[in-house]
Structure formats: structure tokens, C-alpha cells
């Protein structure tokens, strides 16, 4: 029988203590009144989770549009937790670590997985350098790319880790390639209740299909006439989710991500995918950067490179890894990128600083 959001698993632990439904309500109130900032966020989420409503309000990140609050069914979150548990074999009593903020979907889902699946959850303050007890071993953890980069040398204390919320750079992939920890990149969004697919980043067994995104149980994919991903996940959302993510489909449960439809650059009749150009340049440019377009009288749009840092710090010899159409026509520099609430680069606002019209 499928658990419901009113269940608190009898094996669930939070920071080494068992809690019933009533006990969890009490500790939630305590966190909101007396806890550290991250504990107050945890307490507020727990109070929302334990109330009589069948939904919670969740803040979207704002990486592809204006941040907004949406309502997500609690049972959909339960179903997502079960799918992740099945995929990663998260059985009752396993130990998981949460170093993500509780006010976004990724952090909320770590908590829900523990409550529903009967996991032993340790919470630590979210930061780019998580303060983790290295004497303890964990079965599962979720990171942002920056957290993974900073924690890479300590990964032996983790069996499995997932990473999401931003691009996993070539330099991070290099750091983790020989680690025994099984590390997966996630694909998803707030609207799909966290990730709906994952792909391996290390510990490959020689099978090319491992390098594609594989959907969680109960999720199937297709693409529309634009070549964009369409997600069908009946246990998570009542309607198909039509995305702006351009993909290659290999089966109804596997795909490869190419880039964002709204980022595609048509330059003189050639379609260019900024994300693919950025992937090639990863590790070759110091600091943050992104690729975008600027209006051009001849080409319609021309590809340009935006770099965070001092002027003329990029050696153009790095462009030799690019195809001829992918070489930026100009490089622009900005002292500090604008960011979304979740810490991602806000491309549109950064371009507004430079007064660039795309």
C-alpha cells in the first residue's frame, strides 16, 4: 500500500532522534522559535508538511523566468520520494545527509524522503562548504555543483550522491571521476517535484547508455514539434509537462539534453546551442562565464561570450576547441554577475547591466 503524506515512518530519524507525527510537530515549532536560520526554514517547512492542507506552496528558482510560488500536491511529493527510493535502493534505516536549504524543492524533498521512506536524516547548515561530520558514513546525499566541488576530497564517506541546480563543469567531473562514490546528475524542476531523471557522472561500466538521462520509475518522455522534452509523470502531475529543453530521445525512458529552446541562437541560418559551447569551454576560462547572442545586422544574431572578471583576461586561444561557427564574435566583461534567489546566473539581468540587446 502506498504511504500518504499523513504518514511518518516508524524508522524515521532526524538528527539521531525518532519522531512521531506529534513529536515532529513539536520540534518544528521549537525550530521556528529558537533555531538557527536553517533550522527555522526546516521548522517552517515541517509545519506546512504536517498541516491539514493537501498541498504546499513552493518557490521556483527564477532561472528561466520570474520567481513565483506554485502549489504542489503533498501526495505527489510522496510519490516522488518513493520513485527516488526505488531507483537508489533507499530502504528503511539508511542514513542520508541534507546540506540544502529547506525553502527550495530539492531541500524539501530530502526531508520528505526521510519521513516517508524511514531514513535517518542528518541536517547541516546549507553552505558552499558544508560542515559535515567526516567520522560518519552516509548512504545518500544531494549537492549543488559548488558543494560537490568543495566536498570532492571527502566523498569516501558517501555511497551515493546526486547533484543538481546548475551545470556540472568539466573540472568537477574530473575531480570525481575516480571516486568510489556513485554520483549522478539530476534533471528536473520545481513543477515536476524535483528530479524526474538522472545520469551517471562517474563509475561507468562501458555502456554508452549510462551517459544518458534515465527516468525514474513511472516517468516517460517524448518530444514536441520543436524538439523539446515532454514529460509524462502521472503520479507527480495531472498533466504532461511541456518544457523548453531541447533533447535527443533514445527511448521513452532515456534522453540526452542539448540546451534550452529559449537560448538557441540562429546566427546566419546556423543553429547554435550556448550550453554546448559552454561545455567545451569549461575549465579553459577562469571564473564564471556564459554564452548568449546579440542582434546583428548581417547575421540576425551573433554569438557572444560574457565573462565575470577583469577586462581582456580571456586568451582567445581557448577557442580552438570550438567549431568555426561557435567562436564568439566578441567578449564582454562584467565585474559581478546577477544571480537568481537560488544562486544561479541570471542571464537576462546580467545582460541588462551591459545594455546588450539579444
Q: What is the molecular shape?
A: globular
Distance separating the two termini:
52 Å
Order of helices and strands: EEHHEEHEHEEHEHEEEEEEEEEHEEEH
Strand count: 20
- Beta-strand share of residues: 25-35%
Topology summary:
Blueprint: E1 13-14, E2 17-18, H1 21-34, H2 37-50, E3 55-59, E4 69-73, H3 74-88, E5 95-98, H4 105-117, E6 120-123, E7 138-143, H5 145-151, E8 158-163, H6 170-176, E9 182-189, E10 194-200, E11 213-215, E12 220-223, E13 228-232, E14 241-251, E15 254-260, E16 265-267, E17 270-272, H7 274-281, E18 289-296, E19 300-308, E20 330-334, H8 347-354
Helix pairs in contact: 1-2, 3-4
Could you please describe the fold and organization of this structure?
Helix 3 (74-88) crosses helix 4. With 358 residues, the chain is of the alpha/beta class. It has helices spanning 21-34, 37-50, 74-88, 105-117, 145-151, 170-176, 274-281, 347-354; strands at 13-14, 17-18, 55-59, 69-73, 95-98, 120-123, 138-143, 158-163, 182-189, 194-200, 213-215, 220-223, 228-232, 241-251, 254-260, 265-267, 270-272, 289-296, 300-308, 330-334. A hairpin with a 2-residue loop joins strand 14 and strand 15 (254-260). The strands form four sheets. The chain has a 13-stranded mixed β-sheet. A three-stranded mixed β-sheet has the order 18-19-20. A two-stranded antiparallel sheet has the order 3-4. It contains eight helices and 20 strands.
Amino acid at each position: 500500500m502506498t504511504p500518504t503524506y499523513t504518514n511518518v515512518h516508524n524508522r524515521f530519524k532526524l538528527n539521531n532522534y525518532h519522531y512521531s507525527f506529534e513529536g515532529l510537530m513539536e520540534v518544528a515549532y521549537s525550530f521556528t522559535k529558537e533555531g538557527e536560520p536553517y533550522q527555522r526554514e526546516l521548522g517552517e517547512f515541517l509545519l506546512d508538511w504536517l498541516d491539514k492542507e493537501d498541498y504546499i506552496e513552493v518557490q521556483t528558482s527564477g532561472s528561466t523566468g520570474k520567481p513565483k510560488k506554485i502549489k504542489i500536491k503533498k501526495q505527489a511529493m510522496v510519490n516522488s520520494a518513493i520513485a527516488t527510493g526505488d531507483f537508489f535502493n533507499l530502504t528503511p534505516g539508511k542514513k542520508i545527509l541534507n546540506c540544502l536549504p529547506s525553502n527550495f524543492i530539492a531541500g524539501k524533498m530530502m526531508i520528505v524522503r526521510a519521513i516517508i521512506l524511514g531514513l535517518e536524516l542528518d541536517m547541516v547548515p546549507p553552505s558552499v562548504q558544508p560542515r559535515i561530520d567526516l567520522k560518519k558514513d552516509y548512504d545518500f546525499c544531494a549537492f549543488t555543483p559548488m558543494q560537490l566541488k568543495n566536498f570532492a576530497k571527502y566523498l569516501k564517506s558517501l555511497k551515493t550522491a546526486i547533484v543538481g541546480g546548475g551545470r556540472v563543469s568539466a573540472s568537477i567531473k574530473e575531480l570525481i571521476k575516480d571516486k568510489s562514490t556513485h554520483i549522478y546528475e539530476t534533471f528536473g524542476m520545481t513543477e515536476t517535484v524535483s528530479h524526474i531523471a538522472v545520469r551517471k557522472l562517474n563509475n561507468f561500466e562501458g555502456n554508452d547508455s549510462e551517459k544518458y538521462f534515465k527516468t525514474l520509475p513511472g516517468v516517460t518522455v517524448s518530444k514536441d514539434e520543436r524538439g523539446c522534452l515532454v514529460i509524462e509523470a502521472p503520479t507527480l502531475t495531472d498533466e504532461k509537462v511541456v518544457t523548453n529543453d531541447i533533447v535527443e530521445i533514445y527511448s521513452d525512458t532515456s534522453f540526452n539534453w542539448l540546451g534550452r529552446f529559449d537560448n538557441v541562437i540562429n546566427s546566419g541560418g546556423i543553429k547554435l546551442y550556448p550550453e554546448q559551447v559552454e561545455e567545451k569551454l569549461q575549465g579553459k576560462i577562469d571564473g564564471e562565464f556564459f554564452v548568449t547572442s546579440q542582434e546583428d545586422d548581417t547575421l540576425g544574431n551573433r554569438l557572444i561570450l560574457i565573462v565575470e572578471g577583469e577586462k581582456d583576461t580571456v586568451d582567445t586561444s581557448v577557442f580552438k576547441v570550438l567549431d568555426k561557427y561557435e567562436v564568439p564574435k566578441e567578449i564582454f566583461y562584467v565585474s559581478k554577475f546577477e544571480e537568481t534567489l537560488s544562486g544561479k546566473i541570471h542571464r537576462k539581468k546580467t545582460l541588462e547591466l551591459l545594455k546588450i540587446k539579444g
